[in-house]
Amino acid sequence: MTNKTVLQNRIRILAIFFMCALVLSGLTAIPLQWELKLLMPFIEKISKWGITFPAMLTWIERIQDGVQIGYGQYPFLAYGTDWLAFGHVAIAIAFVGVLRDPLRNIWIVNFGIITCLLVIPWTLIFGAIRGIPFFWQLIDMSFGILGIVPLWLVRRDILRLSGEL
Predict the structure, then answer these.
(1) Tens-digit pLDDT profile for residues 141-157
(2) Contact 86, 10 (CB under 8 A)
(3) N or C: at which end does the chain have fewer Cβ atoms within 10 angstroms?
């Protein structure tokens, strides 16, 4: 296998991994009520076992209440998370360009890296405005930070493929 083939295969694998992770993380926004119904008994069990993270438990219970009451009385609120999922899927589709022609479409990878970096200030600004606990903001920011890793590797391999590195 040539070095070029190895780079092309690694680019494809990492891009597909990123696309799948992006789609999956987005799609989890759609069934929030169902997910919380599954999560709450588990949260209650670990509390009974003496494993406690009081701030986390309080926050998840608050989310549960907000989703049940909000979606129950105003189901159109769920439409916002439906569009959040759509945004994830749409961005993932853009990465098909990287699969088809990584050299011409390195801009998509750069866009992804910039977007991952923007997760940090976006989370800090709107997390503070919306009263999201800082520990939860860290979890949200981790998606952007973790997303940079495969994208940086894809970018590096594209640059190697082009002969720039």
Answers:
(1) 999 999 999 999 999 99
(2) no
(3) N
